[in-house]
Design goal:
220 residues, 34% helix, four-stranded antiparallel sheet, alpha/beta, Rossmann fold
Length: 220
């Protein structure tokens, strides 16, 4: 049964700013959800709350499986992953970066190598396997950050502006990878962007963060 995320009336404020004001939305189907809105409107805050990295001031963030609420424990957090713009890359090889999340999950060494190699091939990084990850270009580093999340097998993948500050070639590659994950199925992607044309290319469901609330974008 697919993991379901239900956000109910969440509020979040920082000093001098009410960022989220009564957000309600359900992510209850596989595919790609795209949350749009201008920079600074609260999209990143919304993702951090959904990824259980922060707590809302009010409201509930519930994960469900077979209709049952799940405890917000390590087991659940390993089923979801957030990739931030310019996500921190470790000072080790590309392979080492990719393998880390699998090792902490107790995956066998032989399976780690197999999964990492397969994912590096998918993300066009197989030739960079032994390279120090800190020497990658910004676009390659962003692809590595997403690949590092995907290799762990999340059920819900949060992507915060995945093509921000990335050159056109790598941006197109990242979009193709997101479309490929959608075609493959078995995964819910929730991503943010301020680019309406990108949202139209990628989204199964388009949402807008407006005045602190998430609202659906009416399809033409």
């Amino acid at each position: 049964m697919a993991l379901v995320l239900k956000v109910e009336d969440i509020w979040k404020a920082y000093p001098g700013s009410d960022v989220l004001r009564g957000c309600d939305v359900s992510f209850d189907r596989l595919g790609v959800y795209v949350l749009m809105g201008p920079n600074g409107c609260g999209k990143s805050t919304f993702l951090r709350l959904c990824a259980l990295l922060e707590e809302p001031d009010r409201g509930k963030i519930n994960y469900l499986s077979d209709g049952q609420n799940l405890a917000k424990d390590v087991a659940l957090k390993r089923r979801i992953t957030l990739v931030l713009p310019k996500a921190g890359i470790f000072n080790s090889s590309v392979f080492g970066n990719m393998a880390y999340g699998l090792k902490v999950r107790g995956v066998k060494r032989s399976e780690v190598a197999e999964r990492v190699d397969r994912c590096l091939e998918l993300f066009g990084l197989a030739g960079k396997k032994e390279q120090n990850a800190l020497t990658l270009s910004s676009g390659e580093g962003q692809r590595l950050s997403i690949a590092r999340a995907v290799v762990t097998g999340p059920e819900i993948l949060f992507l915060d502006e995945p093509t921000a500050s990335v050159d056109q070639k790598n941006s197109e590659m990242i979009e193709d990878l997101i479309l490929g994950m959608k075609r493959q199925g078995g995964l819910t992607v929730v991503m943010t962007t301020h680019d309406a044309s990108q949202a139209a290319r990628l989204a199964d469901v388009r949402l807008m963060l407006r005045e602190g609330r998430v609202v659906p974008v009416l399809q033409a």
